[in-house]
Amino acid sequence: MRLTVFHNHTPDALWEKSLGKLITPLAYSELKKMGDVHTAVFNDGVVGISVSKNDSIVYLKVRDITRRRGVGKYLIEETCAYIIESGFNTVSFDIKTVPVNEQDGLIYFLGMQGFVQSPDDPLVFIYREDFDDDEEDCD
Predict the structure, then answer these.
(1) Nearest 5 degrees, angle CA 122-CA 61-CA 35?
(2) pLDDT tens digits for 8-24?
């Protein structure tokens, strides 16, 4: 099987056990209230979830056991693509709600995914598809 991201997909019965390891089943309904839910699934198990609202990522979680295996990278790529395909030019991620002890790791991770720090707020990160093009233009 391969890693797949489902957008706004009702969880399959097969996902129930792994979803419970990532978040409580009750919390899934709360995530749906926050915005569009993006679920990363591998071998019928949920390994990551993100939530977007308009042009922002408002929630991101990857199972500890699957970190550093490309799940978060793929989930962020797919979530950003979904937001951009929805008509937005940029994607923002405000990390103020992320526990302080996890912020440094998330800042590093977001930088590796092409996000840059907002000049207006050091805890907001912005992604734009053409950031890479801008860097090449500077050479």
Answers:
(1) 80
(2) 887 777 777 777 777 87
β-strand partners of 52? 36, 57
Residue entry with tokens 């071998």: 43
Cα distance between residue 88 and residue 81, in whole Å: 10
Kindly report the CA angle at 6 between 25 and 73, in degrees rounded to 5? 100
H or E element at residue 85: helix 71-85
Helix (H) or strand (E) holding 91: strand 90-94
Whole-angstrom CA distances from 89 to 59, 81, 114, 120 are 19, 10, 14, 18
What is the pairing mode between strands 45-53 and 56-62?
Answer: antiparallel
Residue 111: what are its φ and ψ, rounded to 5°?
-60, -40
- pTM over 0.90, yes/no: no
